[in-house]
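A student in our group prepared the protein record below, which I am reviewing. What it holds is a sequence and that sequence's fold in C-alpha cell form. My question to you is simply how this chain folds and whether the C-alpha cells agree. Do not assume that whoever made the record got everything right. I have pasted the whole thing underneath without changing anything:
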Amino acid sequence: MVKNKKIVVLGGFGFLGQHVITELVKNKYEYLILSRRNGHDVLDFQKFASTLKELQPTTIINCAAHVGSVHYAIKYAADLIRDNMLIINNIYEAVKLVSPKTKIINPISNCSYPGEANIHFEPDWQKGHVHDSVLSYASTRRMIYAYAQCYNRQYQIKSVNWLIANAYGPGDYCDPNKVHALNGIILRLINAKRKNEKNFEIWGTGQPVREWTYIHDVAKILVKSISLTEQIYPINFAQNKAYSIKEIAQMAAKKLNYKAKFIFNTKYPDGAMTKILDDHKFKSIYPQWKFTPLIQGIKNTVNYYQETL
C-alpha cells in the first residue's frame, strides 16, 4: 500500500536523487521527480512555483545542486555560487508563496565546516572560514541553514538539515571533472587498468584524510527524515571513521586487481587535510544505525563503473 504522503524529489535523476527514489519506493511513498531532465528546472522560479502550487507536497527532498570536483569548483566558481544560491532561494520562496505547509529536507556537504577544523563538531560548524578550494560551493551550503532559519522565523517554514560527509557509490558521473572524489579515483583506476598503464597518478599528495559516506546510506537518512517535524540546525550524519586518499586508491586498486605504481601530482590542490565528523549526536538519536562498510561500498562502486564504462 502506498503511503498517503506526496514527496517531491528535486534533482531526482541525479547521483543522490536516484538513490532517494529507490528508498522511497522501498518504503512505499508516493513521490514525484522535479528535475531539469523532465522539464522542471528549479532555476525557473515561475514554472517551479506554479508546479509546487499544483502539487502541494507534504515534503521536498532537495537533491538539486550544481556540483563538481574540487578542481571544477575552482574553475567555475562564479557559476556554482550563482546557480546554487538561486536554487536555495527559489525553493524557500516558492514554498513560502504557494505551499507553506511543505517541509524541506536538505543534505549539506561537510565541506561547509571551517577549513582549519579536523574533527567536525556541530556547535563549531560556522566558527571559521570554509577552505578556499571549496569557497564557491561550501558558502552556499551554509546559506541553506540561513534560509531555513530565517524562513522558519518569519513564515514558519519547516526544514530538516543534515551534514553529510563525502558521498560515493554507484550512479555518479563518468566525467572526471564532475564526479565525486572517491568515485573519481575508481573511475580513473578502471580506465588506467584498461590501458595497461604501469603508473597511476593521484591528484595531490594523497595525504588528505576524509570520512566517506555510501550514497544509499545518505538516501536512507533523508527518507527517514520524512517522519521528523523539523531539524533546522544541522546534525552530522556521521560514523567518525576516515581514510586517506592514498588508502582509498589502494583499496580500489586491490578490488580491481590492478598493480600500479602510484604517482602523486602535487600541482593539484589537496584541499583541507583532515575532515572527520563527530558522531556523538547522531549516535544518541540513532544508536542502532548501521552504515555500509567502506570496503563493501567500494566493491559496489567498482562493479557499477565496470558495467557502465
Remarks:
- The first strand starts at residue 3 and ends at 10.
- The chain has a mean pLDDT of 94.
- The domain at 3-167+212-237 is CATH 3.40.50.720 (Rossmann fold).
- Residues 77-98 form the longest helix (22 residues).
